[in-house]
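User: Teach me something about this protein's shape.
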Amino acid sequence: MVSLRPLAALPVVGVVADGRTYRHLLYLLVALVLWPVYAGVVSFALVFGLVLSVVLVGIGVLIVTVIGSRLVVGLERSLANRLLGTELVAPDDLPAAADDGSAGSTASVRAYLAAPSTWRGLGFLSLKLWVALLAFAPILVLGNGLPLIAAPVRYPFAQQFGEVNGEPVVWTVDAAPEAALAAVVGVVGVLLGLHLTNLIAGGARSMAVALLGVEGGADAGGEADAVTVDREAVDRGGNDDGDAGATGDRDGAN
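Assistant: First, the predicted structure itself:
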């Protein structure tokens, strides 16, 4: 069975054989789907809450929105773990009583509002807007590049790239040399789109690591390092004891 890992290690073109690229692309597509939902719910909650804040109902709406955002943050953490390669775990900055619901409602609300993870999560959701906007670039490049790759087998055809000043931008391919050129342009466009995908997903990954939780692998690595250090200390201690015993035996023999 041929492994794709050596192909993925190639410069420039290896991105095509790297499975992470397509997970990153799926993450950006999901971001485009979820962004209108986030924007609609948050906008409605803010407007409704601010308008009705004079009768205290709006304040309740705002509080519910802030606390409810933790559920959305949990979804985003799962998406980052599955598609961006992170190992994030939820922060434990909530008191146990508030987390399991044994505390009173007022104390639980105060605990949720006082938790730094609540506001970091809101910050991530706000920044996710820019991820969704930037995601349009690689998707548009890929959408225009992929049809051009098949130009040698489907010409004559006309490829539209959008509009400028209300006029459509169209490339009409009706000859073999032009079809070959279109295929080369398509390959370059696909490679550019995939590299843009990884670049934007890398920025989203950094945002997730900074705002959505702590890396579980980092903690595990720290414990492993500690165990290694302890073992080395024990080994050194054992060697020192052995050396001392050997010296004592030599002195006794003399």
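Now, about its shape. The longest strand covers residues 157-164. Confidence is low (pLDDT under 50) at residues 218-239, 244-254. If you'd like, I can walk through any region in more detail.
User: That's plenty for now, thanks!
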